[in-house]
Amino acid sequence: MKGCFVTATDTEAGKTLVSAGLSCLLHALVLKPVQTGCLQETDSEGKAMLRAPDVDAVERLGGMARALHCYLPPCSPHLACELARERLSVAGLARELRTAAQDESCVLVEGAGGLYVPLNEQESLLDLMQELKLPVILVVANRLGCLNQALLSIEAVQSRGLEVAGLVLNRVVEPEHCDPGCGSCASSEDEARILNDNVTSLARMAGRRHVPLLADIPWLGSDVLACREKLLERLAPAARRVQELLAEPGQEAGSRESLLDFDRNHLWHPYTSATNPLPVYEVASTRANRLCLADGRELVDGMSSWWCAVHGYGNERLIAAMTRQVQRMSHVMFGGITHRPAVELGRRLLDIVPRGLDWLFYADSGSVSVEVALKMAVQYQQSLGRAKRQHFLTPMGGYHGDTQGAMSVCDPVNGMHVLFSGLLPRHYFVERPACRFDEPFDPQSLEEARTFLQSRADEIAAVILEPVVQGAGGMWFYHPDYLKGLRELCDAYDILLICDEIATGFGRTGRLFACEWAGITPDIMCLGKALCGGMMTGAVTLATRRVAQSIGQAPAGLGGGLLMHGPTFMANPLFCATALASVDELLASPWQERVRNLQTWLQEGLAPNDGQPGVRDVRVLGAIGVVETEKPVNMATLQRFFVEQGVWIRPFDHLIYVMPPFTSPKEDVQQLCRAITRAVDAGLIL
Ligand SMILES: *Cc1c(COP(=O)(O)O)cnc(C)c1O
Prior knowledge:
The two termini are 41 Å apart. The protein has 21 helices and 25 strands. The chain is elongated, with a radius of gyration of 31 Å. By secondary structure, it is of the alpha/beta class. The protein has a 7-stranded parallel β-sheet with strand order 5-2-6-1-7-8-9, with helices on both faces. Bound molecules: pyridoxal-5'-phosphate (PLP). The site of pyridoxal-5'-phosphate (PLP) has 15 residues, from α13.
């Protein structure tokens, strides 16, 4: 849909007059989603019908208009349609508006009253504006108090990520009719001064918010038609502004191509080639569990943006927390300074993580939190005088991030250690935990680790692994008793256990933390990804008091007790405040029930793929569903197929997997599974 949204600070501001004028100047159709206060009439066949006064007003001036929903009572839309036993919704109205605008080169969608005028119990006109994403022309009645109203409206519109294309001031008070005794304007001279000052003040104050004052419409009298030329003359700059916006890139397919061109020629994507990149899709916005592509298509999200967006996108609590914090203090260094967001997030995390974890280090990404964990382990062993314990033991198939220390403990084949053999320290690997999550535990699976530690424990600072679910290294679910067994082995040799819960933390596996499946507490734990609900980057490394104190008491020759790390953006207040809101949102939600439902729907939906040609294994745990293929998948082909099916699923290597937002409705999860089943049925994985 192309055009703009015409709204006002309030009712009776002259919005329809402005729409009518713009309709004439731009030859654009005015679409009125809801019209209340209609007139009852009978048509030529004697049938009762409702006439929309605003449509009449536009047509009288020579413009074109249509009202989609008409109601008799002159009240707010939500009440009018309640009285008519109907229900309006943003999604429904948006759909109807898009259909009505289909063949138009420019439409003017006209609101009803102000921004927060309700459409139903939950949604307002502002929500409709946000859904349509059109630039906004704001009509302001020039009267006492209008500066305040105009600025509040600008702020509200801009806070939804919309552009206020400009203001139109409208003199709605007949000059000589102002009541001399009204107190605020002692004489008509005073009144004129106030109204004129509104023009200059508003131009200045709105200008500071990058909103131009496009027109100042004088009092036109009751016979507007007689003043038509004057109105159109005054509105000409506003019409030009709308035309400029229509010509701007972003609405044009051509600009999308140039965007993709730049991307292709200058931007690296994760694990891709600069000379032969995989295709990318431009996402323009996100909402709930949907990615909205720039070409207008909407995809059901199956990835939660790599484990992060557990609440879906655009969660109100998270946005409110972020907005509040960014206004107060977005960032301040953590050296020598502390702040409430860091303390409150820390308190909340210590309340919910496995018992015994007691100290926190805020890192700026998951990989960095792993680096910090590795350093902690080495410093801990040094503090006890065990200088030789500089190595790590980890199962194959793990993934811990892309920085060097983290990479050195990733699966050596997946992580392409050969490429970096001169760069990476060498650590020790045991075979991938062979015992499936859903089969009886086989103690034999721990033998290799046991034998290794018997002979070489004195080289090992810590064992590091992802609890129960190995993520990016193969989406493998192993038996919790394996983790329990490793905990015991670590205790026996005073080796630390590091659990990397960056992917599994915050409910994904059905427990708040995957360690809970084994009932263990690691000595060090990393959290990231869903910690901030997908709003921004940030992570934390937690340690037990024993680890923190031992490092803290190290003698001068061994670091003097300092933990040697301190990123610039450590404990970024914006991150901490947002993460706190995300954790609270999760804990306040029925997340266990949601994850249980997702598990059931994924099991049902993916089951038909079991035993199909090309499929090696189908497995589901919590809100993670995996179809493992026999051959590596053709990413580009499968990706295109999934987008055509209306879903966002990013397969890689031998894996087609989904981990949808916890808030995903059943139909959408079924759609994700259906898309995978169709791909398998179509032989796309052979
Ligand atoms: C994603 C991930 C990381 C790395 O986190 P980044 O924020 O990408 O640096 C580390 N460990 C696990 C288990 C992960 O899934």
